Each structure stands twice: as structure tokens, then as C-alpha cells.
Amino acid sequence: MPPARAEPAPAEPKGRRPPRRRRNDPAQYDDLADQWWPTHGRFAALHWLAEARARLIPPPPRPGTPLLDLACGGGLLAPVLTGELAGWRHVGVDLSSSALRQAGEHGVATVLADVTRLPFRDGEFPCVVAGEMFEHLEDLDAACAAIARVLAPGGTLVIDTLADTVFCRVGLVRIAERLPGGPPPRLHDPRLLVSPERLGAALEQSGIAMRVVGGLRPSVRDYARWLARRADSVRMVPIRSTAGVYQAIGTRS
User: Fold this and answer.
1) In whole angstroms, how far apart are CA 82 and each of 95, 119, 207, 228?
2) What is the DSSP letter of 75?
3) What's the rounded mean pLDDT across residues 194-217?
């Protein structure tokens, strides 16, 4: 997949420090509203994950078919809906109005809403994308029920999220928050991380069968080039381990 469009900007303006908030506070996304699109900004890894996520999205059955992007943020999935994926009509839902404004500038039809109360018709979307979302939810079961309601029968749910493991809580949250390209500090709450077993059970209860695809890790070579400012993106490499970031596909029965 092609990398997201580069927009030159500093990783974070000098002298500006976002306020300290509780872990998983949605207000952090407004604090960091200028960081969605810089390729070396605080949300850089979300660009890398969007490219990997697109590999699991099926082609649209016909041009103009709606695809629902949950917790779409600044619309980072938009640049990778190309080629055989270009026919999707990209609909994005998020709680952050500042993020949705930027998503709209990148061609996303935006809706301000909570993922547990989706304002759409039953079975409206043949494809729903939930990227880096489930690990932020206080009510996992309600979100799964809402997704199942708007997903068309036989439709596809594309998932990537953080596993509930010691490796993830320490390595991908506590340590990664201190690394370039890692999540901004306090963006994740380790108590909300969700195992494939827990997520699969919640989805099954709502009528969606989930299949784990595997895990993801950044390419070491690409990351070194990105650190040296010789690359704007880092490939996420498929791996067998699901102890960190894992991907899954859901199908509504």
C-alpha cells in the first residue's frame, strides 16, 4: 500500500506541552489535534497500522458502497483506500470534533458519535473497520452489539487492537510511550486491553464470528530509516505472535 501523504510539520511544537490527563481520556486527541497528519508526529504509528489494516479490507461489491470506519480519528485510512479499495464510500465515526474536521478534509463523510450508540440503520454497512479501537472501550459488549447491528449479514469486520498480555502492557504501553513513533503518554489504559478470546466471545454473543489473522510488528529496518528521517512510513510486518498488536476478521452470521 502507498504511504500516507507527507505533510511537513514538526513532531511537536517547541515549548508546547499537552496537559496531563487521566489514562484513556478522549480529550487527549483534541490536545494533539495537530499531530494527525505529520509523518513524524505523535500519531505516526497509526499511519503504519492503517496501511496494514487495508490489507484485510475486501473490495467493495459495487462503487459507492459505504464502509464504516470506527474511531476514525483524522481519517488516516483514507489515503490507503486506493486501487481495488477505491470504490468504498468512506464513512468515519469519532468522538473528537477536531479529528473529524481533518478527516472531512481528506474525503471522509464524518459523523460525531459514540461507537456504542451508532446512528445508522440495521445492516447498513457491508464492511466495518475497527482499528486500534477496542483497547479504549469501557463497555466492550455494548460496542460489539452496536457493530453487529449495523454490519450487514455476511459483512466483514476488520480489527486490529492491543492484546491483554504482560508484553503489551509493559512493552507496547509503558515503554513504547517513551519511544519515537510510540503512542503518546497516557493514551492507553492497560486495564482495557482485550485478549482475542475475550473479544471473540463478546462478538460471538452479538452474532459475529471472529477469526484471528495474526500479529504485527514494525520493520526494524524501516523504523531505523524513519528515525533517521530517511523514510516517512514504516511497514508493519505480519507475525505469528498475538502478544502485542493483533489483527482479526469478523463475519456476521
Assistant:
1) 26, 27, 30, 28
2) T
3) 98
Does domain 27-252 fall under CATH 3.40.50.150? My reply is: yes
Distances in Å between the alpha carbon of 218 and those of 39, 71, 243? 15, 22, 14
Which residue from 107, 41, 110, 109 is spatially nearest to 79, judged by alpha carbons?
Answer: 107
- Contact between residue 138 and residue 113 where contact means Cβ atoms under 8 Å apart: no
For the entire predicted model, the pTM comes to 0.91
Sheet holding 89-94, edge to edge: 109-112, 89-94, 66-70, 125-131, 151-162, 245-252, 208-218, 236-239
How far apart CA 28 and CA 177 sit, in angstroms, is: 14
Structural domain spans, the chain: 27-252
70-122, pLDDT tens digit by residue? 999 999 999 999 999 999 999 999 999 999 999 999 999 999 999 999 999 99
